[in-house]
Specification:
single chain; 288 residues; D-amino Acid Aminotransferase, Chain A, domain 1; 2 domains; 28% helix; binds pyridoxal-5'-phosphate
């Protein structure tokens, strides 16, 4: 970890990450009773943070937690974290757990003070090799729970699937339920066929992706709107392009699925066009 990324936030206090402590009876630690957000920061400025605060608010509401902080306070916390960690480009991580009790208790308690945690991490720039060659992915049955629309810290299935992809020398795992594509283990997915861009419908099985939403706006502006609807896994075999989207990886081309080439096996022209728009949008928002 870069020395400048060591300042964290816990319940009102900024301090060295290594010195921050939570009680062992914190429900986030015991049950994964917690939600989180990851906000990319470019040139010291949070990128589309309002959409991350909205999703955070939605995740909290879905697990029956109150707002915790309003948007202004989240904003000031995020800016403090950025400044104290040296500014520039990074990712801000925010996590809110239901808090710590004096006993381990499945029942959701009333009136518990939430645990609010924040930190920053280096934002790796996309390697020229990945942009040139694209990513390899594997496909697996989606073994996660039925509320993947909540950005919960309970990520056991996601990390097992993601790690399996890496064991297979791939960089992501595309998931499916009953033959229908859902998303990546840590990313949203788009499929391009015959010049049309498709994405699976939002619902309880999918996280509403902040990057996916931006990409959809950019596709619309490009005159190639995203068509949202179920995608059969069989359609991947004759896809011309497949893309992954996430806040920390932006928009990346997939060029191999389970060892088979996607299209001609190279990043496709539509990805290149939309990624160029993405980079321009990023630059414009940093200069705003
Ligand atoms: N889907 C899953 C399961 C994710 O974990 C993520 C990001 O971490 C995404 C989609 C993409 O969301 P976003 O673009 O907001 O990062």
């Amino acid at each position: 970890m870069a020395p400048s990324m060591t300042i964290g936030y816990l319940n009102g206090e900024f301090a060295d990450l290594a010195s921050l402590r939570i009680p062992v009876l914190d429900r986030g630690f015991l049950f994964g009773d917690a939600v989180y957000e990851v906000i990319p920061v470019y040139q010291g400025r949070p990128f589309r943070s309002e959409f991350h605060y909205q999703r955070l608010q939605r995740s909290l509401a879905q697990i029956h937690m109150d707002a915790v902080l309003d948007r202004e306070h989240w904003d000031s916390l995020v800016h403090d974290l950025i400044e104290r960690n040296g500014g520039g480009s990074m990712a801000v991580y925010l996590q809110i757990s239901r808090g710590a009790e004096s006993v381990r208790n499945h029942l959701i308690p009333k009136g518990l003070a939430p645990t609010v945690f924040g930190m920053t991490a280096a934002l790796k720039s996309r390697s020229p090799e990945v942009l040139e060659r694209g990513l390899q992915v594997i496909t697996r049955e989606d073994t996660r729970w039925d509320r993947c629309d909540i950005k919960s810290t309970s990520l056991l299935a996601n990390i097992l699937l993601y790690s399996e992809a890496h064991e297979q020398h791939a960089q992501e795992c595309l998931l499916h339920r009953e033959g229908q594509l859902t998303e990546g283990s840590s990313s949203s997915v788009f499929v391009v066929r015959n010049g049309r861009i498709y994405a699976p419908p939002y619902g309880p099985e999918i996280l509403p992706g902040t990057t996916r939403d931006l990409v959809a706006e950019l596709c619309e502006a490009n005159g190639t709107p995203v068509r949202v609807g179920p995608i059969d896994m069989l359609e991947l075999a004759d896809a011309d392009e497949i893309w992954l989207a996430s806040a920390t990886r932006e928009l990346l081309p997939v060029t191999r699925v389970d060892g088979h080439a996607v299209g001609d096996g190279h990043p496709g022209p539509l990805w290149r066009a939309i990624d160029t728009r993405f980079q321009e949008y990023k630059q414009e928002s940093a200069n705003d």
